[in-house]
Specification:
It contains 14 helices and two strands; from the N terminus they run αββααααααααααααα. It is mainly alpha-helical and 303 residues long. The chain has a domain of 179 residues: MetI-like (MetI-like fold), CATH 1.10.3720. It has a two-stranded antiparallel sheet. The protein is flat and about 75 Å long.
Length: 303
Amino acid sequence: MSGSIRIGRANRLAGALPWLYLLPVVLPLIVWVYEPLGEAAWLSFFEWDMLPDTAKRFVGWANYRNLLALPKLWKAVGNTVIYMLGLLPFSVVIPFAIAIYTQDLPARFRNIYRVLIFVPMIVAPVVAAAVWRWLLDPAHGLVNRLLIGAGFEPVRFLTDPHVAIWTIIFITGWKLIGFATLIAAAANAAINPSLIEAAKLDGAGPWAIIRRVRLPLLSSTAMLLVTMSLLLGAQWSFAYINALTEGGPLGATINIYYLLWDFGFSSGAVGWSASSAVLLFVAFALLAMGLIRLSDRLSFHDD
């Protein structure tokens, strides 16, 4: 009897071991992701200004109803979509073009350009914002000085409602392009050279090799960068919106992340901020599910 008990305990212990191995990964997710998310969902049903001596007042679904009826929310949602799509050329198209067309450079020069293009990624966003504010100043900035010298009118990059959002997209893309280029270059370098040589023996030219061999084999990496850009692009731009435009002019650069921050830390409307966070989580969770399914369908592997 005692032997069977020991065997049963050993089997239970062996069955529990995989869960123990996962614990170092699962526990931080619970503490730093899911617990705050649950707290946000709970706060979304209350009205509170974050002051410790102020009681929370339960309002039910009122925060969601008021938020969905707010024109500012839909303006932020529309701008968020613009940020997500506007960053795709910087995070996917340009990096793949650079990676493919510099593949045949000598290794020394290839490494030098990769280091140079990656430099913006290691610059702190606040520091980068300060530099860009000086460069784009309408009166004394270097960019406008060059435009005036070329015979053009100065551009109000950060104060013109029609230009400001594209300026923020460009600055965000400038910072991210190095990271995306390194990922694309690594994936391109991992392609089996025998496949390229076989295509050349069959008479394929450079463009045919890119279109028929390289791009299909890079599809999984491209979908990874597309997914990252669509899910995180608007979040990456938050620091530049906060430092350069504060959502202006006239709400032209505001996105859902900045709106969420503005409700919580500027206006003190914690319930509205939490409601925005819950809606944001649901929307991006659905988008992530769709992108994962699309990635499985479009990705191509040579094995």
